[in-house]
Specification:
mainly alpha, MetI-like fold, 2 domains, about 0% strand, globular
Length: about 290
């Protein structure tokens, strides 16, 4: 019996040690970025984990230094925010409408269409990047923020599965009662389903906002412009330190930009965390 207790205790200690090591490896780059963002050394310093001195100058220069021709963080932030908000609105509408159709309507080929959508959604988006680029180039939508909005929201309906699972948990009798009272399908969706779906709406909105806010790949391909005022935050920060000279003078500002980019997402998630978790768990019941 004592041997079993010792064995369980040793196993528990080993698990916690392993988790602690994993946590250290996971947190170390984040902590280093935070420390570098407040460092008084403007370049990259890989010899010291903790800087010699700390300052807020990197944030001031990044946000208010209008003489810097390399960094235009306020413009990049505004561009990204506009793209993310518009994409979020369009994508959320697409996802919720497709999810409602797949959950409540019955038509020929519905199951095949659902399966095809799920399989298609398994393929990473960058596989279609070249084709999408040439299509947008033909439509003269490269170097255009609207082109990015079309990319981010165009296939968003394929992410219907979790929202559909949540809609499946809402009693069908509510919809039937409304139809008996003369409500149309659009009214049932707008007046009954949507008010009862706050958790999944929050989950959908946050998910739709994250993609354009954090994306680098599509933004760098679709906006090859040399004008710094056209870039998003991700492409702007990357190009800000893309050469050796800028890396030695702007790396701390790059880290400060990374901190600033994470703030809206962190605040949004903390405020909406309850609904976000409910949306995931509710959608997983029948999804």
């Amino acid at each position: 019996m004592n041997i079993q207790k010792v064995g369980r205790g040793a196993s528990s200690v080993l698990r916690h040690v392993f988790l602690a090591i994993v946590a250290i490896f996971w947190l170390a780059p984040i902590i280093w970025l935070l420390l570098t963002a407040f460092s008084d050394f403007p370049g990259i310093n890989i010899r010291k984990f903790v800087p010699d001195g700390f300052t807020l100058e990197n944030f001031r220069l990044l946000l208010f230094d209008t003489s810097d021709t390399v960094a235009r963080f306020p413009v990049w932030f505004t561009n990204t925010l506009q793209i993310a908000i518009l994409s979020c609105i369009v994508s959320s509408c697409f996802v919720l409408m497709v999810s409602y159709v797949m959950s409540r309507m019955r038509f020929r080929g519905r199951r095949s269409l659902m399966s095809f959508g799920v399989i298609l959604g398994l393929f990473p988006g960058f596989l279609s990047m070249i084709a999408v680029y040439f299509i947008l180039a033909t439509l003269e939508l490269t170097n255009s923020h609207m082109g990015l909005v079309l990319i981010y929201s165009g296939s968003s309906g394929l992410g219907y599965l979790i929202a559909k699972g949540f809609f499946d948990t809402i009693s069908e009798t509510l919809s039937e009662s409304a139809r008996l009272d003369g409500a149309t399908e659009a009214q049932v969706f707008r007046l009954i389903i949507i008010p009862l779906s706050k958790p999944i709406i929050v989950y959908t909105v946050i998910s739709a906002f994250l993609l354009p806010w954090m994306d680098f790949m599509f933004a760098s391909i679709m906006i090859p412009s040399k004008d710094v005022n056209d870039w998003t935050v991700a492409t702007g920060l990357y190009r800000m330190i893309n050469n050796r000279f800028n890396r030695n003078t702007h790396f701390a500002r790059f880290c400060a930009g990374g901190v600033l980019v994470s703030i809206p997402i962190s605040v949004l998630f903390v405020i909406m965390q309850k609904f976000y978790v409910e949306g995931i768990t509710g959608g997983a019941v029948k999804g």
